[in-house]
Amino acid sequence: MSCKEDKQAPSDDLKLRRDRFRAEVLSGLRKSQKELPSKYFYDEQGSRLFEHICALDEYYIPRTEAVIMETHIEEIIERLGPNVLLIEYGSGNCAKTRILLSHLREPAAYMPIDISQEQLLCTTRELAADYHGLEIIPVCADYTSDFELPVLKRPSARRVVYFPGSTIGNFDTIPAKHFLEHIAGVCGPSGGLLIGVDLKKDPDVLHYAYNDRQGVTAAFNLNLLERINRELNCDFQLEWFEHYAFYNPREGRVEMHLVSLRDQTVHLDGMTIPFAKSESIWTESSYKFSLDDFQQMAAGVGFKVERIWTDERQWFAIQYLVNTAGATL
Ligand SMILES: C[S@@+](CC[C@H](N)C(=O)[O-])C[C@H]1O[C@@H](n2cnc3c(N)ncnc32)[C@H](O)[C@@H]1O
Asked: Which CATH architecture has domain 61-201+288-323?
């Protein structure tokens, strides 16, 4: 990333976000199973490490999803139709979005939503340089909280939400349903959802995807503690925590934790947080789905799966869902 001048956020806004960050970290570390929200992985260093993860041999997700997109792009574009408002949740570096943007027919606008302001502004600037004439409306927001979508200057034929990368897998089952319900409201009765969903597979493949040989995923996980130290003036000793990720077959999810290597205490905001040796902080879940499970969950909130595209190994699915029920938010 090279958009240094975009980093300045209004100070009130910054304070508000910092206060929310502190409150959520404290609340997570007070639980009996300590946890931290995975949305905080993506500071500048975290976003850079995630890009590195996406290039790893073991991390099959972005590569597989991009191949499916490229193979079926004509059919995908056919579903989206002309004059679409494309709204992306968790846009990141928009690598796969570019495949869509390069083919869309006279899109009304593209609205990327991301919690990471630096990455959002940097990516928006790069897209604006590459896609002349495309209206891009970046929204810096936490999509798990209440936020308003800006009103479009001109009408669109339909709204399609794009949610790639199997980020839906980072939600637990009930929050995932609520989130899909929210999306159904955003895209409205004639709208659609284009979503990437990671499928159940050999646990060994999953294990190596989250335990790469170079230790990039471990660095990504530990960077969360570094961010908390830097932004919240905390004193985690990084060398006393270790990355631990495993597939939990009963729950159908990969769990990522940071395990304390000794008895220790950490200080944050006047609070002392004790850690016993081997105690963990749960930092992320990545649920893996069967096509049936996902279809049922989507149907429960009024989404009908209209089309599924997969790779040869059936490791990943891109699905187009239409909203058969909800009203527009
Ligand atoms: C796993 S990356 C996926 C990026 C991209 N969509 C892809 O498929 O490669 C997740 C992205 O979502 C953003 N993100 C995570 N949680 C978020 C939240 N609660 N609200 C808004 N953005 C979020 C992160 O900042 C990051 O850019």
From this structure: 3-Layer(aba) Sandwich (3.40)
